């Protein structure tokens, strides 16, 4: 039976059972930061399980594409080596929200698998597991389905940790969860050793898991903390690739119809007669995943989902290289998977995006080829050197650290060559390196992905030049190298020579215009990586071609303000050193056309007097109109002359010094004025602590200082006009108002305290008295949650044995407090009462045995629910205290 037919039958079956058929949701979970990728069919129903979302139908079925690489569920290293593991797979699932639960879910699964109308699997070859405490499920299988008892296996908790079982399903560290029952199928052709299956280990060795029926009963808020879901629900998942392998009578999902066509296409491209099955499987699996992710606008990168995609692509390329594919091949394979997704009911748009997908894959492949070639050659040499078939873990890390060869690639190749690696020692080296990287964050330079596409170097000639006639040497559009940028298109231009300063040394990049005879390109920002400079912007009109002669003109007004701020930063740095006697250690800076920002390490407090001193010193240097000179010299000479430089930064042999005579001498590649007088004015607008002993000064220069004072004077005039009778002494008037406000606050607090006492007395008078314990439950309304704490504390002081439940409703949030006197927590504790509360009104919260606080999902709590809580708590008290 073809894979497409199986999917169609599944959806038809549940349609006949009155289920709403929904399409596969995006591989990128919407509004859910807890997941990296969609990893199960139930992801799109999460809000329904939690009771946050209302629905018209209560039963659904879908065929959902999932990714399990990265995050909690990571099958990455198993792919290719295990016959049924994939980075991307299709999950058939049916879901119910209160309409049916365990019995019908099990009956439906059994009918679909075994009935003649559907899949017709042999009943004798089906085995079942269940969570050992789920007696209801056990009873259904034995007494309703009539499954032989020796085909039903109970699965216990691991390491005696409650709910830590293969048959207790969890979506992640938090979220919906519950017991599950799994269906296995015996694929062995001869069933002579069936008596060997006595436990879960025997089952996994001899049978294939095909369907997991999860019964959602709980919501895991934190590790070891669960609350009941508002509605018990059903979530099932059957791997389409797995069930296809059974119905197509093959021993691996890689041998099913969808994969065999793809693998045959790869084989045709390999000239080497030694065709490695593992590598072929990895390439086939990874091209499916890569194509689908790119179709959902994920591109290869260095963080998060983008990094996972890059990792998948590079692993496939490495295996291609290993089996003889030395030239770009991977991008060509994307067209062979279109048939697999053509009729799938999903958001994938592979057919329309195939050219974009191919271009992105080709770019990534081209960039990685050089790394791969060097790394692989080095690895082959290292393997040849080994005498005992053991590769030193330090060598593996060296290949990664020096030549960029991914560690998992080296592991894969060593596995194929039967080379032994000490995984524990390797993991230790990786761990120590990660810890070292965290300590040296400032040394790590993050590259922008588009800068990696630039292959043409630029000469920066913008210290004195503002306008330059030059040539376009490269054009990048939509993360691809192209030959023309058309009207209104956003892109990147690379120039042979440029007056545009690329963002570095804390200074932002220039903006401006690049004009050709055919059009105008607006430069919004300029970024650089060494000698690679990117002019980022859009075509205002017309078009620009590669090799066009253009007129490059920076925004001079913006540049002048930036130069004022940069030159003032150098003056500020030296002034700080002068006032604090060389105790200042620079930690970073930002210079833009709005303000300058300077971060530095200093152990003591900075006073208002210090700020005034800094402003006076800097402004005096500005008034003196001191020349600002740029000096090119060697780094060694600069160090000898005690020039200021960042200790954490690596410098080239030849450096540039910005020297302000007898006051400041600092290494810098930024743009500056010719003399200090051009700065105009300098004003510090804030100074604050941003970390452990780290201070941040923010300042403005030039015309912005005048505007700052104009704004300030205007505000003062407005304040002055408020005081009709006493305009001359504003300070005394404001002081009087503040004193009056403080008096009102004190009076108001007295009234609140009186009100709290009165409420407490009323609650005590209406308390229930059960088994010598006072029980109070009440809804009150205060803006601040702390008020209900005060009320509960007063009640506890008055009553010897008490259980207090207070629910505080306001317009924004509903909070609760459960407070219990210390002398009864041995028998009755707040955490148990919280579970009773959550069983009727869902919520979140935690605390100790004597006090629990949190919030409730319902904003308005009606009296019926309060009555239910009251009855349940009273029953609980009577049961415990009898």
From TrEMBL:
CDD domains: AlaRS_core. Zn(2+) binds at residues 566, 570, 668, 672. One of its GO terms (biological process) is alanyl-tRNA aminoacylation. It is found in: Cytoplasm. Pfam families: tRNA-synt_2c (PF01411), tRNA_SAD (PF07973). Consists of three domains; the N-terminal catalytic domain, the editing domain and the C-terminal C-Ala domain. The editing domain removes incorrectly charged amino acids, while the C-Ala domain, along with tRNA(Ala), serves as a bridge to cooperatively bring together the editing and aminoacylation centers thus stimulating deacylation of misacylated tRNAs. Residues 1-711 form the Alanyl-transfer RNA synthetases family profile domain. The gene is alaS. This is Alanine--tRNA ligase. Its cofactor is Zn(2+). Transmembrane segments: none annotated. It comes from Buchnera aphidicola (Cinara curvipes). Catalyzes the attachment of alanine to tRNA(Ala) in a two-step reaction: alanine is first activated by ATP to form Ala-AMP and then transferred to the acceptor end of tRNA(Ala). Also edits incorrectly charged Ser-tRNA(Ala) and Gly-tRNA(Ala) via its editing domain. It catalyses: tRNA(Ala) + L-alanine + ATP = L-alanyl-tRNA(Ala) + AMP + diphosphate. Binds 1 zinc ion per subunit. It comes from the Bacteria. PANTHER family: ALANINE--TRNA LIGASE, CYTOPLASMIC, ALANYL-TRNA SYNTHETASE.
């Amino acid at each position: 039976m073809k894979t497409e037919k199986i999917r169609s039958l599944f959806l038809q079956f549940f349609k006949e059972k009155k289920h709403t058929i929904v399409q596969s949701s995006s591989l990128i979970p919407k509004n859910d930061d807890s997941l990296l990728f969609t990893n199960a069919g139930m992801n799109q129903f999460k809000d329904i399980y939690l009771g946050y979302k209302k629905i018209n139908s209560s039963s659904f079925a879908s065929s959902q594409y999932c990714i399990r690489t990265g995050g909690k569920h990571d099958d990455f290293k198993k792919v290719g080596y295990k016959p049924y593991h994939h980075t991307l797979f299709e999950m058939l699932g049916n879901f119910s929200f209160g309409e049916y639960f365990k019995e019908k879910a099990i009956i439906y699964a059994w009918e679909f698998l075994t009935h003649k109308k559907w899949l017709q699997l042999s009943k004798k070859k089906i085995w079942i597991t269940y969570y050992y405490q789920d007696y209801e499920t056990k009873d259904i299988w034995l007494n309703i389905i009539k499954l032989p008892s020796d085909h039903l296996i109970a699965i216990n908790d691991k390491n005696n940790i409650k709910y830590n079982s293969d048959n207790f399903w969890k979506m992640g560290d938090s979220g919906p969860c519950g017991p599950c029952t799994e269906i296995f199928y015996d694929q062995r052709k001869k069933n002579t050793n069936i008596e060997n299956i006595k436990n879960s280990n025997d089952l996994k060795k001899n049978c294939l898991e095909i369907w997991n029926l999860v019964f959602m009963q709980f919501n895991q808020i934190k590790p070891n903390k669960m609350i009941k879901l508002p509605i018990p629900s059903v979530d099932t998942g059957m791997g389409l690739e797995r069930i296809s392998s059974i119905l197509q009578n093959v021993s691996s999902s890689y041998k099913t119809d969808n994969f065999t066509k793809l693998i045959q296409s790869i084989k045709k491209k390999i000239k080497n007669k030694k065709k490695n099955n593992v590598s072929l499987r990895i390439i086939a699996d990874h091209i499916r995943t890569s194509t689908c992710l790119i179709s959902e606008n994920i591109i290869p990168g260095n963080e998060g989902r983008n990094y996972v995609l890059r990792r998948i692509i590079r692993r496939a390329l490495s295996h291609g290289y290993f089996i003889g594919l030395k030239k770009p091949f991977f991008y060509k394979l994307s067209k062979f998977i279109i048939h697999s997704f053509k009729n799938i009911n999903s958001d994938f748009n592979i057919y329309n995006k195939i050219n974009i997908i191919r271009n992105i894959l080709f770019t990534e492949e081209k960039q990685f080829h050089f790394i791969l070639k060097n790394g692989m050659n080095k690895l082959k040499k290292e393997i040849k050197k080994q005498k005992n078939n053991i590769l030193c873990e330090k060598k593996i890390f060296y290949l990664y650290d020096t030549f960029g060869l991914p560690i998992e690639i080296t592991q894969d190749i060593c596995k194929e060559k039967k080379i032994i690696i000490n995984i524990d020692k390797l993991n230790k080296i990786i761990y120590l390196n990660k810890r070292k990287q965290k300590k040296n964050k400032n040394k790590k330079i993050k590259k922008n992905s588009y800068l990696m596409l630039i292959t043409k170097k630029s000469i920066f000639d913008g210290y004195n030049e503002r306008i330059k006639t030059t040539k376009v040497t490269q054009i990048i559009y939509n993360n691809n190298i192209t030959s023309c940028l058309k009207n209104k298109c956003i892109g990147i231009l690379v120039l042979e020579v440029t007056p545009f300063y690329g963002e570095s040394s804390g200074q932002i990049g220039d903006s401006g215009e690049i004009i050709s005879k055919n059009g105008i390109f607006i430069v919004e920002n300029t970024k650089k990586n060494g000698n690679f400079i990117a002019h980022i912007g859009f075509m205002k009109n017309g078009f620009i071609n590669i090799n066009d002669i253009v007129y490059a003109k920076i925004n001079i007004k913006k540049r002048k303000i930036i130069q004022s701020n940069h030159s003032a930063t150098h003056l500020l740095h030296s002034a700080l050193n002068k006032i604090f006697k060389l105790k200042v250690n620079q930690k970073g800076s930002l210079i833009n056309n709005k303000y300058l920002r300077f971060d530095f390490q200093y152990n003591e407090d900075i006073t208002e007097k210090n700020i005034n001193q800094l402003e006076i010193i800097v402004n005096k240097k500005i008034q003196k109109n001191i020349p600002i000179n740029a000096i090119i010299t060697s780094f060694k000479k600069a160090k000898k002359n005690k020039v200021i430089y960042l200790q954490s930064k690596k410098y080239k042999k030849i450096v540039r010094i910005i020297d302000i005579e007898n006051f400041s001498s600092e290494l810098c590649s930024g743009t500056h004025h010719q003399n200090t007088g051009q700065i105009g004015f300098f004003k510090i607008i804030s100074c604050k602590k941003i970390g452990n002993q780290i201070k941040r000064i923010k300042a403005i220069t030039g015309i912005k200082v005048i505007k700052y004072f104009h704004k300030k004077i205007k505000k003062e005039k407005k304040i002055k006009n408020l005081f009709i009778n006493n305009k001359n002494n504003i300070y005394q008037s404001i002081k009087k108002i503040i004193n009056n406000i403080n008096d009102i606050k004190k009076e108001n607090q007295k009234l609140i305290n009186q009100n709290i006492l009165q409420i407490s007395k009323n609650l005590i008078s209406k308390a229930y008295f059960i088994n010598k314990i006072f029980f109070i439950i009440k809804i009150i309304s205060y803006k601040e949650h702390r008020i209900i704490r005060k009320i509960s504390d007063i009640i506890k002081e008055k009553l010897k044995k008490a259980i207090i439940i207070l629910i505080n409703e306001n317009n924004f949030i509903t909070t609760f407090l459960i407070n219990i006197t210390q002398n009864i927590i041995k028998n009755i504790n707040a955490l148990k009462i919280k579970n009773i509360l959550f069983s009727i009104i869902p919520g979140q919260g935690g605390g100790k045995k004597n006090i629990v606080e949190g919030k409730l999902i319902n904003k308005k709590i009606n009296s019926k629910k309060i009555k239910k809580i009251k009855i349940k708590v009273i029953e609980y008290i009577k049961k415990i205290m009898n």
